[in-house]
Write a structure and sequence with these properties.
Layout: H1 13-20, E1 26-31, H2 36-47, E2 51-58, E3 69-73, E4 90-93, H3 105-125, E5 130-134, H4 146-159, E6 165-170, E7 174-175, H5 183-195, E8 209-210, H6 211-222, E9 228-233, H7 234-240
Parallel strand pairs: 1-2, 1-4, 2-3, 4-5, 5-6, 6-9, 7-8
């Protein structure tokens, strides 16, 4: 009796999608995947066929299991050590902290400014086509307020990197399932049903916005091929999504 072995070829999933069934296959890098916007964006990237590989740079594992997902636990103070992991079509930076979690302003700046700028530099160095940054409504390097000034400085310094395509998203008050919520945030969320309808005309951009809406807009913009620097205000983000 002869035993016949069955040869089962290994299939390159990305090649199969792009060349066999005609779906463009991209690799995404996401940073801040455990946050309010980042967690929604990660789910979208894993669900959509456009992206066949997703690398999440994380402080600790998310415990999400998916055939497209690769998690890399990193020390953000040593991002140069992970240069080889930062390659692909688009890098989505959803990093951010709060005063409650990070009361020290130097630590706050490191998370909200230094890490995003360094990631932009590595993205440009490795030929990543698109960089998507979550900023904030009112971001302005000349602002007298620490938060909006810091966001503005981050935007300006990333613009100087010379990325091929940069999308900056400036959402207003985010709504969604937060793991942590400060006292003032709870008050603001409670007042949303009263305040939002009053914000009309040029004030519409100040209406609250679901984090999932921001994430969806980021994904959709990443499928566009237009080069340049684009700033999306909160009301425009809703239109894109």
């Amino acid at each position: 009796m002869f035993k016949h072995s069955i040869f089962i070829p290994q299939i390159n999933y990305a090649y199969f999608c792009e060349n066999i069934i005609g779906i463009m296959s991209y690799k995404a890098i996401i940073v801040g995947a455990s946050g309010l916007i980042g967690s929604n964006l990660l789910n979208i990237l894993l669900d959509e066929a456009t992206y066949t590989e997703v690398t999440a740079l994380v402080r600790k594992p998310t415990e999400i299991s998916h055939h497209k997902l690769k998690e890399v636990v990193v020390d953000f103070d040593k991002l140069d050590d992970y240069t080889n992991e930062i390659s692909g079509h688009a890098l989505f930076c959803c990093l951010g902290t709060t005063k409650a979690r990070t009361p020290n302003e130097q630590d706050y700046r490191r998370i909200d400014h230094d890490y995003p700028v360094k990631l932009a530099q590595l993205a440009q160095q490795n030929g990543i086509k698109q960089y998507h940054l979550v900023s904030s409504l009112g971001a302005d390097a000349k602002s007298s307020f620490f938060y909006t000034k810091l966001k503005g400085e981050t935007e300006d310094d990333i613009k100087k990197v010379g990325l091929n395509t940069l999308h900056i998203y400036r959402p207003s008050l985010l709504i969604g399932d937060r793991k942590e919520q400060g006292f003032l945030e709870k008050i603001a969320v409670a007042l949303i049903p009263v305040i939002d309808p009053l914000l009309v005309g040029s004030l519409k951009k100040y209406r609250s916005i679901p984090a999932k809406t921001v994430a969806l807009a980021m994904y959709k913009q990443s499928t566009n091929s237009e080069d340049g620097v684009f700033i999306h205000l909160s009301d425009q983000i809703k239109q894109i999504a």
